[in-house]
Amino acid sequence: MGKILIKNARAIVTCDEADRVYYDQDLLIEENKIARIGADIEAPDAHCIQAGGKYVYPGLVNTHHHFFQAFVRNLMTIDRPGMTLMQWLDAIYKVFIQLDSQAIFYASLACMADLIKHGCTCSVDHQYCYTQHTGVNPIDLQMEAADMLGFRLIAARGTNTLPRSEGSTIPDAMCETTAAYLQDCERLIAKHHDPRPFAMHQIVLAPCQPVNCREETFVETLRLARSAGVYMHTHLCEGENRDMLRRYGMRSLAWCEKVGFLGPDIWVAHGRETLPEEYSILAASGTGISHCPAPTIYGGSEILDIPGMTRAGIPISLGVDGCSTNEGSNMLDSLRLAYLMQAFLSKQRGGCPAPYDILKMATTAGAKMVGRPELGMLAPGKAADLFMIDAERLEYAGALHDPQSILPKLGITGNVWLTMINGRVVYHEDRLAGVDERRLLEEGESVCTRVLRDTCPAFAPYRNNR
Ligand SMILES: [Zn+2]
After folding, report:
1. In a domain, 221, yes or no
2. Does 84 have pLDDT greater than 90?
């Protein structure tokens, strides 16, 4: 890797403790870390990137995704207006259960390519699709896919252990036993989990959600994760509270308190149904929320109370969520959506996070939430994970006075100019490094056709479109 000198950047937005922005300065990278930021850095042995006119940002950290869903999108047969949640789940799980591990491999490549092209350098993927077609190797294949693209992957090993015949929403064919899940978690931790700072591969344990798992699954997850020193994740307060009340006589957060599934090593996706009187449960335990704006809009559901939760001390990060409720993996788009949604309710709530606060949710806050403080900030000693946009474009005229706000405030959602991960340029001027993008696209498309388009009823209306 050696040294890379980013020379004369128009702005370097650091997201550091002092919220520093450097103008017309340089950033020196040594191996996989940032060595220096300053004026006129001399490094004759470094590879030089001329960054005049470019804005530099810390790489975005995506704290919630389901890569496997990339092959279950752009389907109007599933997203019909007026469908009930159960009708939608019925339709979509019929597609999920046809996926095999090869489909998940190419779906993962598609998502990671999308993430990289929009400034994301590290993502959590919550993989909970396990069937007889997938076997247990999807995460092994996802790690291979991440290595092909040079992407930093935190794979959350999900599971569903309560079948629909016993009251969940999950078809029996997508359920595992707690014992089988735990055995695979142990295997994955031993094989892939690198606990060191700057790790490219990590494992998180992540039962899908309390309504779709047995209680023992969560209890055993806590035991294994804490003994192995890995983080935990789940979906929570995303519409399941009525079912939790029916089954356990308590809301989801009270149930989490009862089983002990709270703590600074745990973060939950969504959290939008959390009541103000429950904020202290999350805040006091240090449990974070991954806010995913797109599915909130798709589902027409509650907009997360970021001002109130922030005042209460709940950590909040940003996620794209899976393609079934977002379609794409564009983190810049999530910045924009999150800001607009908060602005929409700002009068009612008497406040709105600043655009820069939203950017920090996707950088420093996300990094801290997943236990990776070396990410999400541009400062000496931090990881060389960053992205750059070309600010010298006519469409930005009149806006180039506040690089901290410009991404969410203007809604800059196109492909970035350059993405660097762990000191390596993985994307530059519309090219992914080290892969034949067209060949991977063709292979992925043919796998989608074999696994889904030729056989799955949800794809029937599209069969003659090629
Ligand atoms: Zn999700």
Report:
1. yes
2. no
State which of 346, 369, 392 marks the end of a domain.
369
- The answer to the question of residue 263 being in a domain is yes
Residues 386, 355, single domain; the answer is no
275 and 356 co-located in one domain: yes
395 shares a domain with 325 = no
Strand-pair category, 3-13 with 47-50:
parallel
Average pLDDT estimate for 112-117: 98
* Gap between the Cα atoms of 343 and 338, Å rounded: 9
pLDDT more than 90, % of the chain: 93
By residue range, what is the domain housing residue 38?
3-58+378-430
Same domain membership, residue 387 and residue 365: no
Cα-Cα-Cα-Cα torsion 175, 270, 92, 143, nearest 10 degrees, comes to -60
pTM of the model: 0.98
- Give the distance from CA 366 to its chain's centroid: 9
- Quote the ligand 1 centre to 66 CA distance (angstroms): 6
Residue 39: exposure state from Cβ atoms within 10 A (0-12, 13-18, ≥19): exposed
pLDDT at 19: 98
Q: Is residue 322 assigned to a domain?
A: yes
Asked if residue 161 is part of any domain, the answer here is yes
CATH of the domain at 409: 2.30.40.10
Instruction: For residue 233, report the distance from its CA to the centre of ligand 1, in Å.
Output: 10
In the chain, the number of structural domains is: 2
**pLDDT tens-digit map of 169-189:** 899 999 999 999 999 999 999
DSSP states of 398-454: T-TT-TTTHIIIII--S--SEEEETTEEEEETTEETTS-HHHHHHHHHHHHIIIIIT
Whole-number Å distance, alpha carbon 272 to ligand 1 midpoint, is 13
Tokens of 341: 């949604």
What does the DSSP 8-state code read for residue 458?
A: G
Report the separation in Å between the CA atom of 321 and the middle of ligand 1, taken as the mean of its atom positions.
5
Q: What is the 126 CA–ligand 1 centroid distance (Å)?
A: 7
